[in-house]
Amino acid sequence: MTVLYMTQNGVTDHIGRSQVAPYVLSLARQGFRLHVLSAEKPGQDTLIDKYQQLFDDVGILWTRVRYRNKPQLVGQAFTQVAMRLAAHRIVRQEGIRLIHCRSFPPAVIGHGLKRALGVKYIFDFRDFYVDGGLENRRGLARLAFRRLKRLEGPMIRDADKVVCLTDRAREVLSGWYLSDVHQPERRFRVIPCCADFTHFDAARLTAADLARAREKAGLQPGEFVLLYLGSLGPDYLLPQMVALFRQVLTVQSRARFLFASNNGKELVEAECDAQGVARDAVRFLSADREEIPALIALADLSVVFIRAARSKAGCSPAKLAELFACNVPVIANTGVGDLDNIISLQRNGSVIVHDFSEETLRAAVQQVIRFNETSTVSIRENSREFALEEGVARYAAVYRELLNE
Fold first, then answer.
1. Please, which pLDDT band fits residue 397 given cuts at 50, 70 and 90?
2. DSSP string of 247-316?
């Protein structure tokens, strides 16, 4: 029986390459028949050819619609309609009985198909998509998210399984929508964002790999490196990150702050100027997925500062799994997903901060550096629950449960 896997994130996007393709390829290798429906951005022909071949090799069917987001609401509506039409056609032509809907927009389609055609559907909830929209949007966009919020409860109640990224998200959703249901926990499966520990493995890197990465980043041997990995935006606390780097400089005078990001260089420079951090102490580059493990391996410490809000109860940063896979400790802030329960010195050489005062940040930097200078803790081995194989095994268990019912 074929499973229809729907994602509005393109397979060729950064998220798709790290959090969609590895999962569906691994599930197909375990014997599941999959048809992937995704929304792809234009100009990705080379990557489309690459993933088409990978999917063909394991028997995955792949239907693509064009991703549009401009004008904002109209473009997204066109994308949604295109995915809806494609999903209805695939379900009817192939006799699909189970749909895996990654995130909220595909789940709206899956919920409609369940009600219209009786198919089972998995609501892969990811983060709190609607609450994030209500926190950040204004005008007509906010009205659209209010409408979506009214759909959320029925979508959760009707789902055959809800996958979420954190235990905290499961507790919140159970309290909101399933308080009258016996054993609501059986409706859920918690699967955090995982990383391919084979790809993110510093032990596989050669001296030449590290030298090339160091040259690209403009770093010198012996410099202490604080790393920020990922995109920059309103949810990522740049002023607090720069403030943390200022405290790193009090302990490591030759420290460099390396941003491996695809956007935001001007924002970083402006914030450094505002806080009196020399631009020469900062390095900024954009890197392909294949280059990221070597850049992570250059780091002595990484920062994961994310805006704490209700919408972040379901946040499981993929970068955390990638950093831990490469044995890099982190300093993170409280109130984000399950990080308060995940981060600890004894387990992963890492620290949670409960505020961003100079004293708190300085103490966290000193604590992490001092601990990891002498510790024999293997961050990588203590983080195996974030390995891709574990995530795939949990999804496979969900598929088997619903396909065998």
1. very high
2. HHHHH-TT-EEEEE-SS-HHHHHHHHHHHT--GGGEEEE---GGGHHHHHHT-SEEEE-B--SGGGGG--
Q: What is the pLDDT of residues 110-151, one digit of tens each?
A: 999 999 999 999 999 998 989 988 887 777 778 888 988 999
Residue owning tokens 């095994």? 393
Within the chain, how many helices (H) and strands (E) appear?
A: 17, 13
Distance CA 394, CA 161 (A): 12
- Residue closest to 325 by CA, chosen among 197, 228, 226: 197
Contact 141, 72 (CB under 8 A): yes
Residue 134's pLDDT is what? 85
Give, in degrees to the nearest 5, the angle at Cα 128 between 44 and 21.
30
DSSP per position, 301-346? EEEE-B--SGGGGG---HHHHHHHHTT--EEEESSSTTHHHH--HH
Count of CB atoms within 10 A of residue 112's CB?
A: 16
Rounded alpha-carbon distances, angstroms, from residue 124 to 6, 169, 345, 395: 10, 12, 31, 10
Full-model pTM: 0.94
* CA–CA separation, 157 and 107 (whole Å): 12
Dist CA 394 CA 405 (whole Å): 17
The encoded tokens of residue 118 equal 């009786």
Structural domains of the chain sorted by starting position, each given as residue range(s) with its CATH number in brackets: 2-194+387-404 (3.40.50.2000), 202-386 (3.40.50.2000)
**What token pair was written down for 293?**
């493990």
| Phi, psi angle pair for 38, to nearest 5° | -135, 160
Give me the amino acid identity at 119.
V
Question: Is the Cβ–Cβ distance between 162 and 125 less than 8 Å?
Answer: yes
**CB burial of residue 302 (10 Å; 0-12, 13-18, 19+):** buried
